[in-house]
TrEMBL record:
<protein>
    <recommendedName>
        <fullName>Transposase</fullName>
    </recommendedName>
</protein>
<dbReference type="InterPro" id="IPR051698">
    <property type="entry name" value="Transposase_11-like"/>
</dbReference>
Length: 71
């Protein structure tokens, strides 16, 4: 998992060092990685999905909505 976080989110190069920042960003990166892995609508690499989510509002909304589980 560490390798995936480092390759896709450049976690080792992160300059976030104070207080709870590193922990919070690590959790957010893991959530994002789980959403990208869960997404089966696009057959693309995680880096490509990350780029598409940054550029396409509809795709980003689809990813975020798929992560919300209604009970």
């Amino acid at each position: 998992m560490h390798w995936m976080l480092d390759m896709n989110f450049r976690e080792d190069e992160s300059r976030i060092r104070k207080l709870q920042g590193p922990l919070m960003f690590n959790v957010m990166r893991k959530i994002a990685m789980a959403l990208f892995k869960q997404d089966a609508s696009k057959s693309a690499s995680m880096a490509r999905k990350k780029k598409m989510a940054g550029l396409d509002d509809d795709y980003r909304s689809t990813l975020l909505e798929s992560g919300i589980k209604m009970r």
